[in-house]
Write a structure and sequence with these properties.
CATH class: Alpha Beta
Helix content: 25-40%
Number of domains: 1
CATH topology: TIM Barrel
Distance between the termini: 23 Å
Low-confidence stretches: none
Structural class: alpha/beta
CATH architecture: Alpha-Beta Barrel
Length: 271
């Protein structure tokens, strides 16, 4: 198997310090948390940012501040801003960090239920996102919460809007979307184009079992506070690095080597 790419999703847009007091919020905190996650074994940092009040924002100034702090600290991992933002934001607001020309950014590949709300990602929105990503030479990570989202990505490839290597993130367990189970992971993987690579992100208590299965299947793994704030039932994780370190230990026990940031770039065929 190729080496394992571990993504650390350190902050998210839905959490607060009332959920976990260790949640990083400021640019300096996000940078420090990213560096610790990289040292633990992460080669991609999935980035959400917050404003001074701790509220989710897609404002370019906050992304720029966080990325600058990460670079100043010597981070080598791939920085992957989110274009998901938060439910209710329009596409022009969500796309802002792409203009910073990061190596990667996320592309949500379809509309889905998201708890009590609806997360809107229609085809016109996705086309707009891809045109902007192409303009700034940004590789999309294809976020799929349902099997139909994979079909949307394939359609965009057929339209010529998705070019180069395809990398999917299969997010399972969001309330209202596809549930997190091994059967659903197997099903989703079978829908992927043969040449694609993929990451699995299990929400909540499903993070660890899906991570283990992803390692065994030859996929890649996402962990972090965005998806799960607990180390085990009833015990909050003290850092994202703690969650990364656990996956590294499991991978070593299963004889799967962990990719460095440069090896991850090679696996993903980043330009």
């Amino acid at each position: 198997m190729e080496k394992l790419i571990i993504t650390a999703a350190n902050c998210g847009a839905e959490l607060s310090r009332e959920d976990n007091p260790n949640l990083p919020i400021s640019a300096e905190e996000l940078a420090q948390e990213a560096l610790l996650a990289e040292k633990a074994g992460a080669s991609i940092i999935h980035l959400h940012v917050r404003d001074e009040a701790g509220q989710p924002t897609q404002s370019i100034q906050y992304f720029e501040k966080a990325i600058t702090a990460m670079e100043r600290m010597g981070l080598e991992a791939i920085i992957q801003p989110s274009t998901g933002g938060a439910v209710g934001m329009d596409w022009q607001e969500r796309i802002q960090p792409v203009s910073l020309s990061p190596e990667m950014a996320t592309l949500d590949c379809g509309t889905s239920n998201f708890g009590e709300e609806i997360f809107v990602n229609d085809l016109p929105l996705m086309r707009n996102f891809l045109k902007e990503m192409d303009k700034y030479n940004v590789m999309p990570e294809l976020e799929c919460f349902e099997a139909g989202h994979i079909a949307n990505a394939v359609r965009l490839k057929e339209e010529g809007l998705l070019t180069g290597h395809l990398h999917f993130d299969l997010v399972l367990g969001v309330p209202g979307a596809m549930t997190a189970s091994l059967e659903n992971l197997f099903f989703m993987v079978k829908q992927l184009p043969k040449e694609a690579t993929w990451t699995v992100a299990g929400i909540g208590r499903y993070q660890l079992p899906l991570a283990v299965q992803g390692i065994l299947l030859g996929g890649h793994i996402r962990v972090g506070f965005e998806d799960n704030i607990y180390y085990r039932k009833g015990k909050l994780a003290v850092s994202n690095a703690q969650l990364v370190s656990r996956v590294v230990r499991v991978a070593k026990e299963l004889d799967r080597e962990v990719a460095s940031p440069q090896e991850a770039r090679e696996i993903l065929s980043l330009k």
